[in-house]
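sry for the spam today, last one i promise. C-alpha cells for design, 459 residues
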C-alpha cells in the first residue's frame, strides 16, 4: 500500500483521499463567479452518469495502484427545504414546479452538484499536529456563493457519521457565515511533512484580509480570508510554529485562480507551484523552508513553474496544478493530471522538462479523464478531501467508506441504475428527477451503511 515518504517502517499512517461521488443533478449552470470553466460551459447539456463513472474510475485506478481511497456521498439535490426557506410553499413537487416557473436561477442553485468537489468540504488537521491528539474537522462555510453555502450542514453531518468516534475525531462548526470569515476549505490548505505520521507544517493560502486592507483582486472575488484561515488553525489547536499564512497573488485570482489548489499542490516535502501563486513568493518559500526544517528536519523541495513555461491562462485552462500529488513507498511521487494537460503542448512539455526530468521526486505522470468535472472547473484535486489517518483511526471509521473492489462494483451498478445520461438546465424542474434523486440517495446510504444522512430520511 502507498504510505508516506520516509523510512519508519513501523509508521502505518496514511493519507486517505476521500473523493466525492458526483450527484444525480450534475449540470452546467455557470454558477461560480471567477471560475472561468464554469462560466464558459454554462448551458451545455451534462451527462451525470458519465461524470459519476469518471469519478469512480479515478478512485478505482488509485485504489488499484495501492493508494488509500475513500468515498463521500453527495448532497441531497434538489434542495427543497432551501426553496421553502425562500417562500415557495406546498409539497415537494409543487415547490419545485413553482421555482422552475418563477425563479429558474434559484432552482439551478439548489440543484447544484458542487459537493462533488470535496476539496472544499472542510479543513482537516491530523492528530499528530493537533494539541489534543485527535483528527480535527471544520466544514467550510462556502459563504461566497449561494449554491455552495447550502452544503455545510449536510457536510458536517456526513463527516460526523463517518468519523464518529470521539476518542479519535473532533468536529467543529463551520465559521460564521459572513465575508469576514469566508472559508473555502482544504482547497486553500496544504500540509507539508516528512512522514505522514510525524509532525508537519501547514500552509494556509488566503485571497484577502477582512481587516487591515492590502492588495486585493480587481476582477474576481477573493474567496478565502486570512481571518478564516487563522480561526480554523486555532480551532484545531495547531502550534504557531507549524503555520505559514500566505496571500495568493491578486493577479492570479483575476486570471481565474479562485482557489489556491488551482495554482499550487503539495505533498510530503514537495510543493509544486506556479511563480504567480503567492503575492510574496520569496518570503513564502523561505518561511516554508525554515518551518518545515524546524518541525520535521525535512528540507523543503519547491518545484517552481515559471510563467515563461506555463502561462497563467494555460495553468487555469488545463488545471495542471489541480492535480493529485501522491507519495509512493520508494520516496518518489506520482502526479495525476487531467487529460487537458496532455492536450496542451506547452503544459505537456513543462510536465516532462521541468517535472519528470527535474531535480525532484516526481517520477511519474498519470493522465485521467475527468472532463465532466473539468467543464465546471474541477480537476482531480478538487474531487478529493485529504485525511491523514493512522491505523487505529482508520479502524475507527464508521460505515462502508473505504473503496475496495466490491464497493466499487456496487457503486458503478448504482450509478447505472439511477443516473441520467443527459441533463439540460430545463430538466432541473422535472418532478421525476426529484424522485429519481431521492430514490438513489436512499439506496446509497444503505450501500455505504451510513444511516439517515439526508433531510428526507430524517422525517
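last one done:
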Amino acid at each position: 500500500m502507498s504510505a508516506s515518504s520516509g523510512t519508519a517502517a513501523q509508521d502505518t499512517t496514511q493519507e486517505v483521499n476521500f473523493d466525492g461521488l458526483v450527484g444525480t443533478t450534475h449540470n452546467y449552470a455557470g454558477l461560480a463567479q471567477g471560475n472561468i470553466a464554469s462560466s464558459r460551459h454554462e448551458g451545455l447539456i451534462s451527462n451525470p452518469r458519465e461524470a459519476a463513472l469518471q469519478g469512480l474510475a479515478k478512485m478505482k485506478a488509485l485504489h488499484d495502484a495501492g493508494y488509500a481511497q475513500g468515498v463521500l456521498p453527495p448532497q441531497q439535490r434538489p434542495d427543497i427545504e432551501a426553496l421553502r426557506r425562500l417562500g415557495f410553499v406546498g409539497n415537494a413537487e409543487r415547490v419545485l414546479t413553482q421555482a422552475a416557473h418563477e425563479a429558474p436561477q434559484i432552482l439551478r442553485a439548489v440543484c447544484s452538484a458542487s459537493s462533488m468537489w470535496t476539496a472544499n468540504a472542510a479543513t482537516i488537521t491530523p492528530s499528530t499536529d493537533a494539541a489534543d491528539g485527535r483528527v480535527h474537522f471544520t466544514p467550510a462555510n462556502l459563504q461566497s456563493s449561494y449554491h455552495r453555502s447550502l452544503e455545510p450542514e449536510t457536510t458536517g453531518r456526513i463527516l460526523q457519521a463517518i468519523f464518529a468516534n470521539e476518542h479519535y475525531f473532533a468536529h467543529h462548526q463551520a465559521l460564521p457565515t459572513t465575508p469576514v470569515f469566508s472559508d473555502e476549505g482544504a482547497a486553500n490548505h496544504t500540509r507539508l511533512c516528512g512522514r505522514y505520521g510525524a509532525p508537519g507544517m501547514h500552509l494556509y493560502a488566503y485571497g484577502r484580509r477582512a481587516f487591515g486592507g492590502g492588495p486585493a483582486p480587481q476582477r474576481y472575488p477573493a474567496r478565502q480570508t486570512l481571518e478564516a484561515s487563522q480561526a480554523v488553525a486555532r480551532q484545531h489547536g495547531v502550534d504557531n510554529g507549524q503555520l505559514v499564512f500566505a496571500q495568493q497573488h491578486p493577479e492570479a485570482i483575476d486570471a481565474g485562480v479562485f482557489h489556491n489548489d488551482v495554482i499550487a499542490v503539495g505533498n510530503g516535502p514537495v510543493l509544486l507551484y506556479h511563480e504567480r501563486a503567492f503575492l510574496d513568493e520569496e518570503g513564502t518559500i523561505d518561511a516554508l523552508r525554515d518551518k518545515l526544517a524546524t518541525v520535521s528536519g525535512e528540507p523543503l523541495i519547491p518545484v517552481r513553474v515559471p510563467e515563461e513555461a506555463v502561462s497563467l491562462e494555460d495553468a487555469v485552462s488545463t488545471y495542471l496544478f489541480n492535480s493529485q500529488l501522491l507519495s509512493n513507498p520508494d520516496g518518489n511521487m506520482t502526479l495525476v493530471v487531467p487529460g487537458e494537460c496532455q492536450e496542451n503542448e506547452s503544459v505537456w512539455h513543462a510536465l516532462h522538462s521541468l517535472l519528470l526530468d527535474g531535480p525532484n521526486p516526481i517520477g511519474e505522470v498519470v493522465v485521467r479523464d475527468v472532463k465532466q468535472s473539468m467543464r465546471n472547473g474541477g480537476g482531480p484535486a478538487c474531487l478529493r478531501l485529504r485525511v491523514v489517518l493512522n491505523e487505529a483511526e482508520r479502524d475507527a471509521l464508521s460505515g462502508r467508506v473505504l473503496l475496495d473492489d466490491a464497493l466499487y462494483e456496487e457503486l458503478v451498478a448504482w450509478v447505472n441504475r439511477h443516473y441520467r445520461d443527459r441533463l439540460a438546465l430545463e430538466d432541473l424542474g422535472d418532478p421525476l428527477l426529484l424522485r429519481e434523486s431521492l430514490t438513489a440517495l436512499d439506496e446509497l446510504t444503505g450501500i455505504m451503511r451510513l444511516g439517515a444522512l439526508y433531510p428526507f430520511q430524517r422525517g
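Confidence is low (pLDDT under 50) at residues 1-9. ok im logging off now
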